[in-house]
Protein: Cbb3-type cytochrome c oxidase subunit I
Organism: Halorussus aquaticus
Amino acid sequence: MGVLLVVVAAYILRIEDWRSYTPLTGGGGGAYREGAEVTHREKPEGLARWLTTVDHKDIGILYGIYGLIAFAWGGINIILMRTELMTPESVVIGANFYNSLLTSHGITMLFLFGTPIIAAFGNYFIPLLIGADDMAFPRINAIAFWLLPPGALLIWFGFFAAPLDIGIQPSQTSWTMYAPLSVEQTNPGVDLMLLGLHLTGVSATMGAINFIATIVTERGEDVGWPELDIFSWTMLTQSGLILFSFPLLGSVLVMLLLDRNFGTSFFLNPGGGSILYQHLFWFFGHPEVYILVLPPMGLVSLILPRFSGRKLFGFKFVVYSTLAIGVLSFGVWAHHMFATGIDPRIRASFMAVSMAIAIPSAVKTFNWITTMWNGRLRLTAPMLFSIGFVQNFIIGGVTGVFLASIPVDLVLHDTYYVVGHFHFIVMGAIAVAGFSGIYYWFPLVSGRMYQRTLAKAHFWLTMLGTNLVFFSLLILGYGGMPRRYATYLPKFQDFHVIAGIGTFVLAFAQLIFVYNLVTSWMEGARVESGDPWDLQDDGLKTREWTWFERKRETALTDGGEGTAADGGEETDD
């Protein structure tokens, strides 16, 4: 990995004169020198453009493609796992490979899909929303992205190396990497996974610093704090959480690597041990949940009012609740540890904070519902997915409140109830909000409109599959089915079969999504105005659509294609 980084640095220094860099304007984005000659070069064509770009829009697209590839990998993992779980005995892929898929699925969805897909929206749209020329540090922005592909390859390397019989297997530690299991496994694939995770953590931290600097210092003159959009508020809060939690994850990973390779005993002695590991891991791990869910909340808070025909109800309270979640998220980590035997007084304090953090989440939920109340609803694909987010978030949130109660948690801890709860948040809310954002801004990014009938089919099948799978998991948890097992008692088979059917429905829905995106990008009807959602009628047109309108006008002036409709479109009303 060190050799790779040296080669990359040498290549960059060879093709680029770093001292010649000047920003697009006198604003942020580079070391501006008064009197220096400002030159603007055309972007290179083809692969060179994507390998050398520092344009926030290009990097946003790179993040999006990367996130969707990781989403596909994690989806294939769970399809194989759910196929195995259709029968009580281990007959399809075997218990060891099941454990490898379990580890890969969790880490991929949280670190390689969740955080990067949010960074995709942030990179592309935050500068447009706040009137900035680019991100504050464009080159750091590019470096943050290019740390991710080698990180993913290291995390997944065991799957590629296993057929080669070179002694490297996929990690089987589960995504939480609990000690002592993660220390005692001799498989080098675990070390590679830890190194890959470290790269993704460095990437996220660099990106967070960039987002904070951009939002604080690069806003347009007419964008004060009261005028800042809700998505930027959530990204600012998320970046603060990353800044204070991801370095701790990096420290834990380094300690694990030292325990595994250099004979230290951070997590193998009575003075520290597995309890110390859990405290350190979950101090990162629970803010990570809000790192993943706050920006999707911002997306929904931005998109849902556009199709309700009115402004977001209680905007200031949504902002304050976002900040409250950011602060409280650092005081709830030990609710993952109620069953470990920690002091009952400490457990009670964490139970109180865990229940209190539900209040700002409830504030947001009631604000979304009130925004829609008596509104002029237009059930477009972005609106449908926003409503689907609200529904799934309510279920995921309410089931989480039960787990915050010590007596209930002691019964349901490490059962499928926990899996159903957080999957209603991770897949049912975060991914669904991501789909909402993709459909909402697809015309702006591509200049074309997606196939609306396919988008609605994607929504309904996604909601059907989501509820089939995760309600089944909640019921299995109530029945006492433990998580992380490749085999189970025959009495649980019926709900595992239902969950398996729901997984295949979900997978089919995502195939529709990919087909729609690819074909629409290449052949979809071109948008006919700079306001494809008719937001101006309700006074809800935001800055990125103004930018899009200027871009179209410039293309028309330069002789580009402006309004070539490729055929009829369905209406959403």
Residues 313 and 371 are 5 Å apart (CA to CA). The two ends are 53 Å apart (CA to CA). The chain has a mean pLDDT of 89.
